[in-house]
Amino acid sequence: MTIGRLALSALLGATVLAGTAASAAERQVTEQGITYTIVDDSIIPESLTGRPGDPEKGRQWFVDRRLGNCLACHAVSALADEPYHGNVGPSLDGVGAALSEGVIRLRIVDPKVVNPDTIMPAFFRSTGLWDVRKDHEGKTILTAEQVEDIVAFLKTLK
């Protein structure tokens, strides 16, 4: 093996190792007194509350037009009894089978981590936002319990 090939091999090996290290990147976030970990900018593996959510309550928050208002953008066949399903966001049919709890949780907490161009709001973030009404400054849209309840509801959509 020539020196050039040896150097290239070493560089490629270092790149692969760096990629592996980057894929395990973790960062801590504290919101409303709750510290959680985002892993690889793709998942919040642990419950925000330390316990599972209630899927029945999650359904309530999901359809509540004054709170989650998720149906404004997403269609869900299991909620055919609810009017006015949106089509701006993807259908959530089958999301419980397609995505893990941790992936769903991050997409509710702060979807801009996954997709900076999304129009979906961050439901559990109160800083770094723009054009926030004065009475909502420093507050999250959902509580940690409500996030976990919605995660539990979405996991039922197989």
Percent of residues in beta strands: 5-15%
Shape: globular
The major sheet is characterized as: 2 strands, antiparallel
- Show unreliable segments: 1-22
Considering the chains and any ligands shown, give keywords for the structure.
mainly alpha; disordered N terminus; 5 helices; 158 residues; globular; two-stranded antiparallel sheet
Brief synopsis:
The protein has 158 residues and is mainly alpha-helical. The protein is built from five helices and two strands.
Question: What does this 3D model show about the protein?
Answer:
- The structure is a single chain.
- With 158 residues, the protein is mainly α.
- It is built from five helices and two strands.
- Strand 1 and strand 2 form a beta hairpin.
- The N and C termini lie far apart (53 Å).
Compile the SSE list and pairings.
Layout: H1 3-23, E1 26-31, E2 34-39, H2 55-63, H3 95-98, H4 101-109, H5 144-155
Antiparallel strand pairs: 1-2
